[in-house]
Amino acid sequence: MEAVWAQPGRPAQVGGMDIVRVLPTRGRRTIGAWCFVDLMSPDSAAEPDPMEVGPHPHIGLSTVTWLLTGEAVHTDSLGTEQLIQPGQLNLMTAGRGIAHAEQAFARGPFRGVQLWVAQPAGTREGEPAFEHHGELPQADVDGGHATVMVGELGGAASPARSDTPMLGADLIVEAGGHTLELDRGFEHALVPLDGAVVVDGVGAELGELLVVPEGRDELRVELPDAGRFLLLGGEPFGERIQMWWNFVARDRDELEAAWRSWRDRDDRFGDVPSALDRIDAPRPMWLPEPA
Ligand code: MN
């Protein structure tokens, strides 16, 4: 059985907001189909950045928006306008192309997690879609409880779409050692949101990712204090993806085509109802400068 390991995330900015990106990370591009995990957790609690991400496009992935505090409004090129609050799930599937904007609704403390899920060959060129789940199933787990965002845990199954076998859950557990049942065919990661987690003597805290390779049907998690963490998992994603900007594809030609569509405002992505400024794509670094 492969050993667990932990890795610090790295600070980045999204739409002017400070975030910590814990996936992808050095040595690990995906956990199942999960390919991107940003913690929107301002270090400067006195002056948290508002989430204001203007219209921008996606292809080949689903976005999962999961708030811890605050509220936000999602709008997209399908005509969706959706308020999201903590405990609720926004799941937007890009397929061949969608554009959206996200804006914090009320000023004040804002914390959340933005995750991406890579779509497999069978759906990644399909139609875009959006789901909002106002209530999600709760599961009892050893030492606490879980909200099941995607997949199934502790006998509770989320109604949310998933294109490959996967799990996403938010666990709140008391201090001590707890045993979680896992799907042996999944690889997993723990994303601490509050407090530290320790597995096999390897610890991780907020801003870090704890990777649990496949092949375990249970996991012993130690918490020095009561805490909260995301448990992400899935069958290892068998397709090699290329990520650039807001796109998940398989090669540069696909990335470049999506970049051109957004730049040229052709009909691939459509318009987003939003008062925020449209976000321009940077020029792909592999393209020669125009003469
Ligand atoms: Mn987005």
Mean pLDDT: 94
Proportion in helices: under 10%
Shape: globular
Major β-sheet annotation: 7 strands, antiparallel
Question: What is the distance, rounded to the nearest whole angstrom, between the alpha carbons of the first and last residues?
Answer: 54 Å
Structure write-up:
The chain is mainly beta and 291 residues long. Helix content is 4%, strand content 48%. The strands form seven sheets. The chain has a seven-stranded antiparallel beta sheet, with no helix packed on it. Strands 2-3-4-11-6-9-12 form a seven-stranded antiparallel beta sheet, with no helix packed on it. Strands 5-10-7-8 form a four-stranded antiparallel beta sheet, with no helix packed on it. Strand 2 and strand 3 (17-23) form a beta hairpin. The longest helix is centred in the last third of the chain and has 13 residues, at 252-264. It is globular. It starts with a strand and ends in a 27-residue tail after the last helix. The mean pLDDT is 94. The structure holds manganese (II) ion.
Quick overview of this protein structure:
This protein is mainly beta and 291 residues long. It contains one helix and 26 strands. The strands form seven sheets. A seven-stranded antiparallel sheet has the order 1-22-19-24-17-14-13, with no helix packed on it.
Features:
about 290 residues, mainly beta, seven-stranded antiparallel beta sheet, about 5% helix, binds manganese (II) ion
